[in-house]
Amino acid sequence: MHAGQTEIDWNSYSVNTDLALEAHQIFSPQHGGSIPGVKTSTEELDGVTITRLSIEDEVGSKIMGKMVGNYLTFEVPGLRYKDPDLQKRVAEQFAEELKKFVALPEDATVLVIGLGNRKVTPDSLGPLVCDNLFVTRHLFDHMPELVEQGGYRPVAAVAPGVLGITGIETSEIVHGIVKKIKPDLVIAVDALAARSLERVNTTIQVADVGISPGAGVGNKRKGLNKKSLGVPVVAVGVPTVVDAVTITSDAMDLLVQRLEQDVPGNGMTKLIGGFDEGEKKQLIFELLQPLGQNLMVTPKEVDTFVEDIANVLANGLNVALHDAITMEDASLFTH
C-alpha cells in the first residue's frame, strides 16, 4: 500500500450477490463452465425462465460462496412492465414449483416470516407479503367450522421488524415464536441484493438453506435456518437493490470496452484496462468514500414494483399452502 493511502476494509466493497444463479454465472467460467459439486438445469415456460441449482458438497459451496442446498430461480424480465396476466402466470408457476420444492403433509403448520423494514420501500417486501397472506392457524382453534371441510393448513405470519426499531435480533424473535408454536416449516421472505441491474425487480429466488437477515446490504445477522431454529427453513427473496460498488465496477468495464471499440489503442483504455483487481478496488473506494459505505441503489419505480411482487408472492404462497384456494380466490386476499 502506498504512503498516505487509507487502509480499506474490502468486505465493505466486495461485489456480492444474494442470488445463487448470479454467483454461478460469475464463477463457472473460471472452472470451464461447470463448477465441481454444483448441478444446474434450466427450462423456459411462457416468458419465465426457471433454473434449478443444487450445491451438493463443500467444494461447490466454497467456490460459490453459498451454502450447500437447493436453489430455485425465476427470471421474468416482463415483471418490469406491470402486466397483470404475466403476474398471474408467475404466481401460478411459483405456487406449482413451491409445492414440489417443499413437500408438506396436509396438516403441517407453516410459519411465514416477513423480514425487513416496512418503512423503507425496497426493504418492505417481507412485511407486505405477510399483510396479504391468508392466515388460518387461529381458525383451527377458534372457528374450526370454517376450515373443517379440508384443503387448508394451519398458517401463521409475522413481520418481526428490524433490530434498529425493536432492539431485538430478528433471529431471537423468530426463535421464540418457533419454540412456542412449533411449526413444521418456516418460510422467510426478504428483499435481496443483486449484482446485475437486470436482475432487480425481475427475479425470484427460493432456497432450502434458510437466510441471513440483512446480509445483502452488509448487515449480517444470525441466520434463520434448520440448524438455528430446529425446523426446515425455506427462503423466498426478490432483489430490489444493487450496491454502488457493482454499478461502478461494471461501468468501468463497459467504459473500457466501448473506448477500445471506438478508439482502439487509446491511452485511457490502456490505463484503466491495465488495473489489477486491487488497483480497481482502490479507485472505486476513492470514488465512493465521500458518499459513505454500503450505498445501495434501487430503481425509481420501486414503490409500485414492491407492491406488485408482494402480491405475486402472497398469491403463490396462498395457493401453494392451501389446496382449497385457487389463483382466482387468492386475489381476494391481496390489496
UniProtKB/TrEMBL annotation:
Q: Which GO biological process categories is it annotated with?
A: proteolysis; spore germination
Q: Name one GO molecular function term.
A: metalloendopeptidase activity
Q: Could you tell me the EC number(s) of this protein? A: 3.4.24.78
Task: Please give the InterPro entries that the UniProt record associates with this protein.
Answer: Pept_HybD-like_dom_sf, Peptidase_A25
Q: How is it modified after translation?
A: Autoproteolytically processed. The inactive tetrameric zymogen termed p46 autoprocesses to a smaller form termed p41, which is active only during spore germination.
Question: What are the residue ranges of the propeptide?
Answer: 1-18
Give the range the annotation lists for the signal sequence.
none
Give yes or no: UniProt keyword Zinc: no
Q: Which Gene3D superfamilies match?
A: HybD-like (3.40.50.1450)
Q: Which reaction does it catalyse?
A: Endopeptidase action with P4 Glu or Asp, P1 preferably Glu > Asp, P1' hydrophobic and P2' Ala
Enumerate the UniProt keywords alphabetically. Answer: Hydrolase, Protease, Zymogen
Q: Which family does it belong to?
A: Belongs to the peptidase A25 family.
Q: Provide the function of this protein.
A: Initiates the rapid degradation of small, acid-soluble proteins during spore germination.
How is the subunit organization of this protein annotated in UniProt? Homotetramer.
Official protein name in the record? Germination protease
State the organism named in the record.
Answer: Tumebacillus avium
